[in-house]
Design brief:
By secondary structure, the protein is an alpha+beta fold. It is built from twelve helices and 17 strands. The strands form four sheets. An eight-stranded antiparallel sheet has the order 13-10-12-11-15-16-14-17, sandwiched between helices. A hairpin with a 4-residue loop joins strand 3 and strand 4 (58-62). 40% of the residues are buried.
Amino acid sequence: MDVIAGLSERVRAAAAAGRPLRLRGGGSKDFYGQALRGELLDTAALAGVVSYEPSELVVTARAATPLAELEALLAAQGQCLPFEPPHFGDSSLKATVGGMVASGLSGPARASVGAVRDYVLGVKLINGRGEALTFGGQVMKNVAGYDVSRLMAGSMGTLGLITEVSLKVLPIAPAEATLRFACSQAQALGWLHAWGGQPLPLNASCWVKEVADGAATAADVGTLYLRLRGAHAAVAAACHALGGERQGAAAAAAFWRACRDQQLPWFQQRSDNQDLWRLSVPQTAPVLDLPEAPLIEWHGGQRWLRADAQQAGQLRAAAAAVGGSATLFIAGGARPDWAKGQFNRFDALKPPLDRIHRDLKKQFDPAGIFNPGRLSADW
C-alpha cells in the first residue's frame, strides 16, 4: 500500500469511529491556533520535490518537504518564494511546505508582493471521507469556479490533509538595499504612507523601539528599517531620494531573517508570562492606543504587541476601532486557559462569514475529525 492509500485508509477509519486527528508536519507551528487535539497523524512520509521547472517559474513539492530544502533548491536557480514564509521552530522542529500553506503565514515582504495564498497554483489533499482529491494545477489560469487550492491557505488543516502543493516562484531581485532611519512611530507611519504613493521599489519595512539591556529609549524614538528591491537603477535612485543610513548586505540579511522568524531582540525580550499579539490593521491606520509601542511591519499593516493577560480587551478594541483584527499569536506561560482552547485566540467572525466557514468544514470534513478546535473553540 502506498503512502497516500495508507493515509486515506487511516482517515476513513477515523471518520467511521468519530476519532479526531491532529495533522502535523514538522511541528514548527504547533504554538499557533486555538488548540491541539486528536490522535497525531504525522505526514513525514510525504517529503520530496516532485517537479521543478525554473523556466516556467513553478515548483511542485510534497507536503512534508522541509521549507529550507525547497528554498535552497530555488536559490540555486536564482529564484525564491517572494512572500518569505517564516520558519520558526528550532533544530528539532522543521518548517514544511504543507505547514507553510496550512498556516497561511507570510514574512516581511508580504505587503509588497502578496501572501502565500497568491502563489498557490494547485494542491492535492485527502478530505474527511478519505478521498484523494486534486485542485488547480501548475499554471495561473487553471481555475474554473471556486479556487479550492487557495482556500487551503490558512485553513490550519481543518479542511483536509494537504499531500502536495504546486507553487509559483519568482526570480530573486537583481538589486537590494536596506536603509535605516531614526524616527518616532508617527514619523515612520507618515513616511511609509507617503512613500507608498510614489514609484519606489519598496519591499519590506520594520519599525521597532529598540531596547538595550532593559534600558528604555527616549520618548517614542525608534528605528525604521526599509528594504528596497528591484532593478539596479531603481534601487539606486530610491536610496538617493530617501536618504537614511544604508546597511551592509550581511547585516541587513541577518536582520530581515531574524524579523521573519521573530528572533529580533524585541521578540526575545518578551517575558515568559507575556502573550504575543498580532494586530492586522489598514496600512493607513494611525498610532494606536496600546500598552506599549508595537513592532510594526508591512508598511503599517501588521503590528506586534507584548501584553499581559488582562490587556486582551484593550488590544482587540484598538484594532476594531480602525477596522482591523487582533490575534493571540503566542500564549504566555501564565495562560494555560488559552493553551487549552477555552477562549478564542482569533477574533470572532461576522455571522455570514462564520456560516460560510462552517458550511465549508461540513463539506470537506463531514465527521469533523481534522484538527478540531484549531481555528475555533467550538468546531
